[in-house]
Amino acid sequence: MTTFVWDYLPEYRSEREDILDAVETVFESGQLVLGKSVRQFEEEFASYHGVDHCVGVDNGTNAIALGLEALGVGRGDEVITVSNTAAPTVVAIDSVGATPVFVDVREEDFLMDTDLVEAAITPRTKCLLPVHLYGQCVDMEPLRRLADRHGLRILEDCAQSHAATHHGRIAGTMGDAAAFSFYPTKVLGAYGDGGGVITSDPEVNANLRRLRYYGMEKVYYVVDTPGHNSRLDEVHAEILRRKLRRLDDYVAGRRDVARRYEEGLGDTGLLLPANAEGNTHVFYVYVVRHPRRDDILAALKERYDISLNISYPWPVHTMTGFAHLGWEKGSLPVTEKLADEIFSLPMYPSLPVELQEKVITAVREVVTSL
Ligand SMILES: *Cc1c(COP(=O)(O)O)cnc(C)c1O
Q1: Sites of the modification N6-(pyridoxal phosphate)lysine (predicted)?
Q2: Ligand 1, from 84, 183, 284, 309: best to mutate by most atoms within 8 Å of Cβ?
Q3: Out of 50, 54, 175, 303, which could bridge 156 as a Cys pair, Cβ 3.0 to 4.6 Å?
């Protein structure tokens, strides 16, 4: 079976010397944990975003969890987010003891419908958690106004949107803090797990540094408030430093892939990703939509042995693990409808053109023969 979904090997083969040199640099440095590479990556990632601080952590889920904790979100608080996201967004909210409150998304671009947020605010609401899904930003201006009016914090989930912009501002610089994942498939990916939180708030920065290091602050071996062990690994930090220099090229590569899909599939009746007003899209996932999604995927498998992904087939509020939250089926109609109609085409910057052509030819034939 051909999955075509994702493969890091083409990129590794073209960057092998640099990646191996990064590993060697760390091994020779004499410091394997929280050393020079983490410090330098944090400075460079903060500077790329024009913010004061970046704190490297162990993965994107903990970037969200520690971000929430550092913003003062905890047990009994409510966090407004979407169900149309990767489950880790909601797992992270749950892990700090807070309650996720879902709003529906916009049908055109799958992003948080900010018009629905105010009605979801209660006296327990502490934080807004917009997810910049698939590679483009949520409309942040209305959220900022609401947060200011109601005294709420904003944590951006940037796990899918490195380098995306909204009205000229880069993802992660429009809230109080922003959480990133550097999972290998992400727009900026390590060779294993990694994450980071950026902020310009000195108190949030100090909280994050304490939280990722057992809760220790100034004096090692002394804990005031217990935290976690959530450090970014030194090897991944050094690899990420090298890859950060190529981030804009990776994004350009993703846009080339997207352009070829538009040229090859734009006239087939398949709904291609819409660019929301003011946004530049970085195409972390290339999500298309068709009411006969299941027939299309079955035919692709049967006729071409091509198996494609769905991001995501089950909205988070319908998962057994979140049944206790009490969200009935039907409570988020747009999210639920999209989950039945979307599927993803292979998308990564080093996707070989001939593989992409194969996918385009197959999808074109299947969709136009329905
Ligand atoms: C990948 C992802 C995460 C979790 O990141 P990990 O590094 O896998 O823990 C969180 N939110 C979204 C939207 C993601 O896509």
Answers
A1: 186
A2: 183
A3: 175
Secondary structure class of 273 (helix, strand, coil): coil
Assess contact for 164 and 280: CB atoms under 8 A: yes
Taking the C-alpha atoms of residue 316 and residue 333, their distance in angstroms, rounded to an integer, is: 13
Shortest-distance Cα residue to atom 1 of ligand 1: 159
Task: Quote the tokens at residue 79.
Answer: 């966090």
Q: What is the pLDDT of residue 3?
A: 55
How would you write 299-339 as a 3-class SS string? HHHHHHCECCECCCCCCHHHCHHHHHHCCCCCCCHHHHHHH
DSSP strand pairing (125-128 vs 153-157): parallel
Q: Which residues line ligand 1 (CB under 6 A)?
A: 59-61, 85-86, 88-89, 131, 157, 159-160, 181, 183, 193, 195
Q: How far is CA 266 from CA 152, 166, 231, 274, 342, in A?
A: 41, 25, 44, 12, 16
Name the closest-CA residue to atom 2, ligand 1.
159
CA of 135 from ligand 1 middle (Å) equals 12
Give the tokens for residue 287.
Answer: 């999500």
Distance from C-alpha of 193 to C-alpha of 65, rounded to nearest angstrom: 15
| Fold category of 247-368 in CATH | Aspartate Aminotransferase, domain 1 (3.90.1150)
Half-sphere exposure in the Cβ direction for 177 (13 Å, CA): 29
pLDDT grade for 91, boundaries at 50, 70 and 90: very high
Distance between Cα 292 and ligand 1 center (Å) = 28
Active site members: 186
Atom of ligand 1 nearest to the CA of 186: 1
- The class of domain 8-103+110-244 in CATH terms is alpha beta
Categorise residue 134: left if φ over 0, alpha if ψ from -120 to 50, beta otherwise.
left
Q: How far apart are CA 147 and CA 153, in angstroms?
A: 6
Query: What token pair was written down for 290?
Result: 């068709």
Q: Judge whether 8-103+110-244 and 247-368 match in fold.
A: no
Domain boundaries, the chain: 8-103+110-244, 247-368
How many DSSP H helices and E strands does the chain contain? 12, 12
Q: What is the pLDDT of residues 269-324, one digit of tens each?
A: 999 999 999 999 999 999 999 999 999 999 999 999 999 999 999 999 999 999 99
